[in-house]
Amino acid sequence: AWSVYRLIKKMITHKATAFAYQTVKGELRHATGIMYGFCIDQYASITYFDTDKEQYRKFKPENLITNIKIN
């Protein structure tokens, strides 16, 4: 839970944050994203803007693997 909190806190300040999570298909997705406000939908998914794909994406907090440090 704390890793999700720290990730959201960093992303909400509009700083590009690298992290990884497991997709619904079971694949590992490395992403770099930011948040425009805090958004958790009715399915408890976290919505973020993927700066690499230039799209909004979402993942479930329990699927977060790790935060990745970037320069």
Q: Percent of residues in helical segments?
A: 10-25%
Distance between the termini: 25 Å
| Cα shape | globular
User: How many individual helices?
Assistant: 1
Order of helices and strands: HEEEEE
As residue ranges, the low-confidence spans are none
Largest beta sheet: what is the strand line-up? 4-3-2-1-5
Strand content: 35-45%
- Major sheet attributes: 5 strands, antiparallel
Structural class: alpha+beta
Over the alpha carbons, how many angstroms does the gyration radius reach? 11 Å
The oligomeric status of these chains comes to: single chain
- According to DSSP, the number of beta strands is 5
Q: Provide mean pLDDT, rounded.
A: 82
Description:
With 71 residues, the protein is α+β, with helices and mostly antiparallel strands. Helix content is 15%, strand content 39%. The chain is built from 1 helix and 5 strands, in the order αβββββ. The chain has a 5-stranded antiparallel beta sheet with strand order 4-3-2-1-5, with helices on one face. A hairpin with a 5-residue loop joins strand 1 and strand 2.
Short description:
The protein has about 70 residues and is an alpha+beta fold. It contains 1 helix and 5 strands, in the order H-E-E-E-E-E.
List the helices and strands and how they pair.
Blueprint: H1 2-12, E1 17-22, E2 28-34, E3 46-50, E4 55-59, E5 64-68
Antiparallel strand pairs: 1-2, 1-5, 2-3, 3-4
